[in-house]
Write a structure and sequence with these properties.
Helices cover 73% and strands 5% of the residues. The protein is mainly α.
Length: 328
């Protein structure tokens, strides 16, 4: 028995049980939503903050700061991944169904489909009600840009961008890693993604220290982001989505957000990107998508696209399960 090889995912369980674990995790998220208290990621965030404060204390050369950041990442993440692998191995010894239950629970804590809807849909409602102060306040909770003086279109654009990008990060990437490596893969991805959100800044404090967290998150998201972009394209205006992905995504600073948002914007035929204000300074970002400027209706359309993509992925897992049984 070893902890080096995760137990779970298609390799260990087969398509049928993985599809069942994915469906169960998605349904748990839809029925229960985000855990209001004692969420594991809140506790992990506190651990990560303590580790960062203990290790990222003095200005250092860039190379050394990167090494320290990588070691801090390993200290924060690997014990939890090894624990998840141990639990998966132990439950597998008891029953494959126990592994399915573990995978479903891990996915439930990692996925954020309902939370995404619960945070973004009220922005559309506020814009439809012409309540700009409320729309600004709600949108400012999910994006880092300055929306204190924004009118309808920048707020709607921020919400649509957040729905499309976080659909990939918070929904489809956890599903992907569930299929690949079960609960240990989900834990690895979710903790790495959390550290990227906490440490992956390009400022004086984190330029070196957060380098490893940002790069590891890029690697873990590379395949899921492109599968998400393809799914968005298939479920909307496919030709526009593929053209926007090909032409516009390379101009975006993030190697994974670019394909996702460009394909999503093209699929919806809505304009995203462009100027956004950060800390009082306007930042000129590349344009994404095509067609009309974003509106409140497009926020709901973006959320609907994410929801359809969830069911597409679950349907594909179900189809893979049926095919594998027929071929067995």
């Amino acid at each position: 028995m070893t902890l080096s090889v995760p137990t779970g995912g298609v390799t260990d369980l087969g398509w049928s049980l993985v599809a069942l674990a994915a469906l169960a995790g998605v349904l748990l998220d839809r029925l229960l939503g985000e855990v209001p208290r004692w969420h594991p990621l809140v506790g992990f965030g506190r651990v990560a903050t303590a580790i960062e404060h203990a290790t990222n204390r003095k200005p250092a050369a860039l190379a050394w700061s990167r090494i320290v950041g990588l070691l801090a990442w390993a200290i924060a993440v690997l014990p939890f991944v090894l624990a998840a692998s141990w639990f998966a191995t132990a439950t597998h010894a008891a029953s494959a169904w126990a592994v399915v239950a573990l995978d479903a629970v891990a996915l439930y804590f990692a996925i954020g489909a309902r939370s995404l809807h619960d945070h973004i849909a009220p922005i559309a409602a506020a814009l439809r009600a012409a309540d700009l102060p409320r729309a600004r306040a709600l949108a400012s909770r999910i994006v880092s840009r300055d929306l204190s003086e924004a009118v309808d279109e920048p707020i709607a654009r921020a919400a649509v961008e957040s729905a499309l990008e976080n659909g990939s990060d918070a929904v489809f990437a956890p599903l992907f890693w569930l299929v690949v490596a079960g609960a240990p893969g989900v834990v690895l991805y979710r903790l790495a993604n959390t550290l990227d959100a906490m440490w992956g800044y390009r400022n004086a404090r984190f330029a070196g220290f957060g380098w490893a967290a940002a790069r590891i998150d890029d690697v873990l998201n590379w395949i899921p982001a492109r599968l998400t972009a393809m799914s968005y394209a298939l479920l909307g205006h496919t030709t526009d989505a593929l053209r926007c992905w090909r032409r516009q995504a390379p101009q975006w600073s993030s190697p994974n957000a670019g394909p996702v948002m460009a394909a999503g914007a093209g699929s919806l035929r809505v304009q995203l990107g462009g100027t956004a204000r950060y800390e009082g300074v306007d930042e000129a970002r590349p344009l994404l998508g095509t067609g009309k400027p974003a509106s409140a209706a497009d926020i709901n359309r973006a959320l609907a696209l994410v929801s359809r993509t969830v069911w597409l992925w679950l349907g594909m897992l179900g189809a893979a399960a049926v095919i594998s049984r027929n071929l067995a």
